[in-house]
Structures are given as structure tokens and as C-alpha cells.
Amino acid sequence: MFRPIAACARRRLSLGLTLLGVLAVAGAGSLVMARPTIPQGRELRDERNITIFVESLMGKRHMSQMEVDDEISRRTMDMFLKTLDPMKLYFLQSDVDKFASERTKIDDYVKQGDISVAYRIFDVFLDRVKERTAVAQKFVDQKFDYTTDETMARDPKKIEWAKSREEMDERWRKRVKYDLLLLTTDDDKTKPEEAIEKLHKRYRSIDQRWNQTSDDELMEIFLTSFTMSFDPHSSYMSPDSLENFAIQMRLELDGIGASLESKYGETVVRHIVPGGAADKDGRLKVDDVITGVGQGNEGELLDITDMKLNDVVMKIRGKPGTVVRLEVKKAGGAGMATYDITRARIELKDSEARSTMLERGPHGEVVGEQKVPITEDASKDDSNKSASNDSKDAKQESATSRVIEQPKADGSVFRIGVIDLPSFYMDMEGRRNGKDDYRSAVRDVRRLLEELKEKKVDMVVVDLRFNGGGSLPESVEMTGLFIDQGPVVQVKGPDGRVIPHVDDKPGAVWGGPLVVLINKFSASASEIFAGAIQDYGRGIIVGDHSTHGKGTVQELEELGRIVNQLNPPNYGALKMTIQQFYRPGGDSTQNRGVVSDIELPSQVSHWDIGESDLDYALKFDSVHPLPHQNYPDASASVIKELRDRSAARVAKSDYFKGEEKRIERYLQRKDDPITLNKEKFLAEKKELNTEKEQEDLFDDLQTNDRPVFPKTPYNDEVVAIALDYLELLGDTRLAQR
């Protein structure tokens, strides 16, 4: 099963490497109940300044050195339309034809600071959304025949814009039929009448949400369409987006500690952060629906039904020690309640590095579970100290780990330490302000390595699966924890000059055997680390066929500082690709990624989620290699033996046999249209449900208390490879061939 959802709209992992950090959170804006109008007065001057600054910087400093010309103009138009209507469900061909006269003028407009074309197009889009959702509401109440052999197109690239309203009506009839089929088969508990009501809410919510788009949000969408015409990772960040970005990099925010999602126009509690204010209070539960928000003990409760999620979040978020009142519809129909919760500083601990120790003893038995935690320094503020300590304790209780034992020849045990590193995070503001204890992935991993050494582990596994990147300095310093000294990455700018970034600190924190675990979601800073480890022969790379393939560096520039360095206006920021990075051996990871030494079968390897699948991605190239140390830890003979042993196990594994079959079916059917015949639909769903697997995978990533390296057939094979590696490294004859 594959659901027709555009890849660009479905990607929840942010894949970014900047000079200071990762882009992690999309933007939010103020609530506007009417469709946007072209701003006037001061707002118009700000909009012009922002647009001119973005155009000027992109034209002068972007890595591609492309000029802002008619080609960029055409790309911007296509990207803007694709962002608004990725599945071609709203705009008609006649609309696109009407916009055609603007296709080569956008470059001229932005040079003048004029983005009124975005408002003109968006105004038409809002009309089409209103029109289409009204049609959809009518179709929802119709009876559908699910015994016919109708199909619906899966890939929007293979369909044209609808030529008429009648053609668009037919497209929506199939869409509604599919949505109903999906709702009634995804959840056996959903009755047909409940599915109908959910779809009415969904389509009503679509119309309402688009009409709540603020001027800042529309400007962000349009200017990002312009910047993404140069490459996929350049974007304009509105003031709210910039604030959320800073929160993510600090790994902390002020609020109640609850993750929310918008579902059918309702704000639903998705997760309670352990140790946060809501967790301590104990009344708010997962699946509760928040219907109203008030400020303080006596503040009026504002109805938030159908309000944009980002606006709800901004109303709930606030200074530690202040009170927010929540009107809640309890999960499971348990009635209504109002909770007053005191906000606190919340640490986003799911983004920290974590570790676990795997042991195998004389008899091969599993003997228990153990967590190797990160110990946090308490904040000076009493309220923050309490939140920090409670959060740490809650994390220790909810996170799990495994101990696996394997006998050595002398009767002792092999011990394998696993470090889970979700990103190369770093508190930019703390570092810039000279804060001694600013948040740093390198500091946390160094601490974990020291703790694992005290446990006398024989090997370390660094798990970079789903690590979307982060800080360039952090990736260089992180590599230095595992090598003596030498170049880690080479960085080339628009002028063609190549500058090496070197680990100049002698000695490694961990000099023993090393495995780096990757998948296709490992990107950017992860690829710097994995590529350097592979070039040095310092360890082996295990996982998907290759990493994501993002080999570029972005710079974040607050645009207001162009006007006033000391007291800048809030103009948001431009995240722009200014450099491309290369491994010590000279190859870029751009598009190609870091290829595993030992590949394990995985559907993810075949999903269209890599850099090469993105529009206008920069090309692969190489520079001259730099002299660097070659360790004996990953010789060709060792890697070949590891591959052979793993392949023999994989061939006998029921899990991997099933995965190979799923891969084969996926490749055979990924371009086929979706059947709307219920019997065939259910058969395909039972056999292959890739979109559901993707959703489950991404949902797991949002869970703060997910275990470090849980016991799965896939992870068991990683452990088997690690144990083989330890054995082979002990065989000096093989290692020295």
C-alpha cells in the first residue's frame, strides 16, 4: 500500500547542516481569520526590505553562483504552485495558464522587493480550496461502490492539472472514496458514520486553516519557494520560525511539556514530556482534546476549535511560573474538565545523546537491562533545578536498555556500548554568549564514552539512524573523540576555495573497535562523521545502502542585523547554502551519501527520500584528498569476511526474508495506481503498507521515552556483526592481510 501523499509534504525529519546548527521546527504565525491582503505601511516596508535582502544574498553568496534570472523565476513559480497544491487537487489548468504570464517576471519583482504576485496567486488558491472542499463535503455523503475496479493516480508527477471543473470533480470523487476506504480499513473500530463525520471535519478544517494563513506565513512560503529554486535546503524563516529554531537548538523551552497535534480541526495531546509541568500535574492525558486556553487563574477561556496548531502552541507556551488554564475534553468521552497548570522550563531530552551497554556472558543468556544515563548539571534557578532533576529521573525510569552476554576464550564477557545520537545539537546562543555549560552533543557523548569505558566495554556502536544533522563544529569535534588528529571535512565555498576543518586535539577518548550505524535518514553532519570514520578506516559502517546524501552547509543570517546590528528589527532569517563539504578522501557526500561497508536489507533504502530525489539538488563532485592516518581497523579483508558472515545469517533469517519480499513488492508496485476496489485494497494493504510503516516510523521518532537500541531482529543482526568484528580484530593474521 502506498498513499498518494507528496514526499516533500510528508518529510518530518529536518535534514540540515549549518555553521551553527540544524533546522528543526517549521514556522508559526499569528491568527488571521480572513484571507491575507497585501500589507500596508510599515509592514509593506518590512516586506520589501526582507524580499530585497533575500534576493541580494541568494544572488551574491549562494553556493551555486546562479544568477537571479528567468530560470530562477520559472523555478520559483513551479515550486510555489507545488508547495500550495502538491497533489494537483485545487488549481485548474486555466489558473496555471493565467499565472503563466508571470513565470519570467518573478526575478524582476523580487529585485524590487515586490511579492504581490504571491498574494494574487494565493487569492485564487483560496477560492479553489473553498470550491473544492465544498464539493468534497457533498461527495462524503454519497454511497460508493467498492466492488468496481476503479483506480486513483498515486504520483502527482504523472498527472496534469485538471482541464475543467468536471474533471476536478471526478478527481475529488475518487479522493473522497479513497479517504473513506482508508478510514474504515485503517481502524476496525471506526464505523462508517464516524468516518463520514471525520471527513466532514477534515475538509472543513482544510478550508479554515488555509484562510488563517498570515502575511508572514505567506511571505515565508513564497520566499522559500524562491530560495529552494537554488537548492532544497535554502529557506526563509519567519520571526516565529526563527524562535522555534532557537528553542530546538537549546533543547529546552518554557511551557507545560506536552506535544500536540491537529486532527480533524481539534487539538489533541499526543505526548506528555516526562518531568514536565503537565507530567507533574498529572491530570492532562494523551488523547485529551484541548478546546480552550486561558491565561492566569482567572483569564477568559478562548475557544481554540479549528485554530491553527502553531497559534494554540504559542498561547500555551509561556514564562516559567505563570499559569495557563486548559479546557479539556477528556479522552474516551469521559467528559469535560478545566486544568490550571503552572508553566516550567522543559528540557527536550529526547534530542540528547543516550547510551546503553550490551553484554553477553559465558552461557549466552540475557541477564538484565541497564541504562547508562547522562548526568545533568542543575540550573541555578530553583524552579529550573526542580524541573531538570525531575526530568532526568523520569527519563531514567522510562528509557530501557539491554544487556547481552557473549563468552570470550578466557571465560570473561564481551561488552558492547551503544550510543544513540539523534542530532549534532548545540546551543548557539549559549556558545555565543560564552556560557560555560551550553548544551553540546560532543560534551554529552564524551561523558557517555567515559562512562562506558568505566564499564570496560569492548566496543562502541554509534547509532546515527534518523540523525538529520546539526552543527558543523560539533561534527568535527565529535569525530575527534574517535581519532588521534587530522582533517575531518573539507569545505568549499562559492569561490572554489577549499578549507579543511581539522581535529587538532591529540588523542582519542575512545580508541577501541567502533561500529557506526546509519540509514537513509542519516544526513549532513552525520555524513561528515561517518565519512571521516570510513576514510580513516577507524571503524565499519553498517545499515542501509547509504546515508541521505546531503553534502552542503547552510548559513543562518538574521536579516534584521543588516539594518541594525545592535538593535535589529525582527525580519526573520535566511538559511542559505553557502558551502559544500567533502570527506578527507576528497569525495563529496552530496547526492551519493556514505555507502555502508555492510548493508542490511531495508525498505528505507529504496524509498524516494534521499537528496537525489529532491528538486534542484546540487550535484556530486570531488576535490583533492588530504593526507590522513589509515587505521588497521577496517581492512578490505575484514569487511569482506563480515559481509559474507552477515549475508549467510540474513539468508536464513525469517525477518530478513520477509523484508526482501517486501522490498521486491514495493519496487514492483510503487508506480502503480491505487485500487479503490475494497477487496483488492485490503489484500494489498495486508501485503504491503509502506505509508503506514513510514507513519509508524516517524511517530516512534517523536516519542521521548523510546528505548535505546531496542531488541529487534534488525538490531540483533547488528550485534552479531559487532561480535564478528571483535572476533576478527582479535585475529591478527586476518586483520594484517
Q: How is this fold's topology laid out?
A:
Blueprint: H1 7-10, E1 16-18, H2 41-61, H3 70-84, H4 93-99, H5 106-111, H6 116-140, E2 151-152, H7 165-186, H8 192-211, H9 215-227, E3 235-237, H10 239-250, E4 252-255, E5 258-263, E6 266-272, H11 277-281, E7 289-295, E8 302-303, H12 309-316, E9 323-329, E10 336-342, E11 344-347, E12 354-360, E13 371-372, H13 382-398, E14 414-420, H14 428-432, H15 441-454, E15 459-463, E16 469-471, H16 472-480, E17 486-492, E18 498-503, E19 514-518, H17 525-536, E20 540-543, E21 552-558, H18 560-563, E22 573-582, E23 598-599, H19 636-652, H20 654-669, E24 674-675, H21 678-687, H22 690-701, H23 713-730, H24 732-735
Parallel strand pairs: 1-16, 14-15, 15-19, 19-20, 20-23
Antiparallel strand pairs: 2-24, 3-22, 4-11, 5-6, 6-7, 7-8, 7-9, 9-10, 12-13, 12-14, 17-18, 17-22, 21-22
Helix pairs in contact: 2-9, 3-9, 6-7, 6-8, 7-8, 15-16, 16-17, 19-23
Question: In brief, what are we looking at here?
Answer:
40% of the residues lie in helices and 16% in strands.
Description:
Strand 17 (486-492) and strand 18 form a beta hairpin. This protein is an alpha+beta fold. Mean pLDDT is 82; it is low at 1-39, 360-403 and 732-737. It starts with 6 loop residues before the first helix and ends with a helix. The protein has 24 helices and 24 strands.
